[in-house]
Amino acid sequence: MSLDFDSLKKIPTSYASCSLGSPSNPPPLLPRLDAISSAGFAAIELSFPDILSYGATLLGHDPSPKDYDELTKVAAAIKSECDKRNLGIMMLQPFSNFEGWKDGALNADGVEGRSDAFERARGWIRIMKAAGTDMLQVGSSDTPLEKLDLSRVVPDLQQLSDMLKEHGFKVAYENWCWSTHAPDWKDVWRIVKDVDRDNIGLCLDTFQTAGGEWADPTTESGLREDVSKIELIERFQQSLDDLKFTVPKEKIYLLQISDAYMVPEPLSKEPDESGLHPKGRWSHDFRPLPYNGGYLPVVDVATAVLRTGFRGWFSYEVFDGGPDGKGRDVDLVEYAKAAKNVHMRLLSECAGKKFPLTHDHGTRVTDRT
């Protein structure tokens, strides 16, 4: 049975503030907000790096990521700029490497990871209040397993959920496909069920789902090669069937949308000098809008999520460094408009409507010349 397109057209749309322009050299924040607003998006995901970069402009110096007195002033200023453009702030992101730290284990900054995680949580709650948002995205940790005590993952997220609930806030827990302990949607769904709080749900993502279970940037084919292609397809379809029949719609807080380029050369399977795994590197620079040269089964993932009955936020989070990952020079307004056209085409295809390959319906992005 096909999905009702009329019901899909009412889905609210958001665009991640960090997702417009070159991932490695993003343009100033306010022109990005202008472009997102002019394209007709209702809200943004506010990225913490954008708070830092706009803070440097606003304050005249680089704010410390731990100076929450300054960061709340910056967040309030960003909220004011969003209000001028009729943009809500749907979520603050990305809150990373939070859950499961062993006592005494040091994070990448050489600080005790556990105490730092909860200090950051308290500070980010202050930022949320200043920004006027009620949702915090938490990505499943990619902290090395030897520094984690997995028995603490659920209690840590319970404590975070309780901290947020005091302010009427909620946690959107996302599987990052390079996570060391919860790379798949089933992993984070199991954790969310065990946390058992009414203010924690899922942040699902077409890239994280397909990029984790179906694709692999370290292989020649761009697909997982640990099983046959037939078995890979069958397993992935079963995973999507499981998603649509087991996850209640009210426990999905948003769906993030992006595709992925096949990398020009397979990435090394080893972490880079910063410790980032290959799928994390892939995520950083090779995530275009759908219908723009990627190869992931985005429509299949989005359709499965919609078949749960979910009709909440579709949020476009792309990191488009071009097919070579080295960056692109694009017009921000045109890119944002293309994203809105992508949204309508994606919903149409989820509802079973097909588009001729000769007509891009305004979804294609071109570089400036």
Report on this model:
This protein is of the alpha/beta class and 369 residues long. It has a single domain (5-350), classed as TIM Barrel. The protein has 12 helices and 10 strands. It has helices at residues 5-8, 29-38, 48-59, 68-84, 113-131, 153-165, 185-195, 206-213, 229-246, 278-285, 298-306, 332-350, and strands spanning 13-16, 43-47, 88-95, 135-139, 170-174, 200-205, 252-257, 286-287, 313-316, 319-320. The termini are far apart.
Q: What's this entry about, in short?
A:
Pfam families: AP_endonuc_2 (PF01261). The protein has 369 residues and is an alpha/beta fold. The chain has helices at residues 5-8, 29-38, 48-59, 68-84, 113-131, 153-165, 185-195, 206-213, 229-246, 278-285, 298-306, 332-350, and strands at residues 13-16, 43-47, 88-95, 135-139, 170-174, 200-205, 252-257, 286-287, 313-316, 319-320.
Topology:
Elements: H1 5-8, E1 13-16, H2 29-38, E2 43-47, H3 48-59, H4 68-84, E3 88-95, H5 113-131, E4 135-139, H6 153-165, E5 170-174, H7 185-195, E6 200-205, H8 206-213, H9 229-246, E7 252-257, H10 278-285, E8 286-287, H11 298-306, E9 313-316, E10 319-320, H12 332-350
Parallel strand pairs: 1-2, 1-9, 2-3, 3-4, 4-5, 5-6, 6-7, 7-9
Antiparallel strand pairs: 8-10
Helix pairs in contact: 2-12, 3-4, 4-5, 6-7, 9-11, 11-12
GO molecular function: isomerase activity
Protein name: Xylose isomerase-like protein
Keywords: Isomerase
Q: Please provide the ordered H/E string of secondary-structure elements.
A: HEHEHHEHEHEHEHHEHEHEEH
Q: How much helical structure, as a percent, in the residues?
A: 40-55%
What is the tally of beta strands?
Answer: 10
Task: Note the main sheet.
Answer: 8 strands, parallel, barrel
Radius of gyration, CA atoms, in whole angstroms: 20 Å
Task: Indicate the overall shape.
Answer: globular
In CATH, the homologous superfamily goes by the name Divalent-metal-dependent TIM barrel enzymes
The chain-level mean pLDDT equals 96
Q: Biggest sheet, strands in spatial order?
A: 1-2-3-4-5-6-7-9
Q: What is the CATH third-level topology name?
A: TIM Barrel
SS-derived structural category:
alpha/beta
Distance between the termini: 45 Å
CATH class: Alpha Beta
Unreliable stretches covering 5 or more consecutive residues: none
Count of structural domains: 1
| CATH architecture assignment | Alpha-Beta Barrel
Number of helices: 12
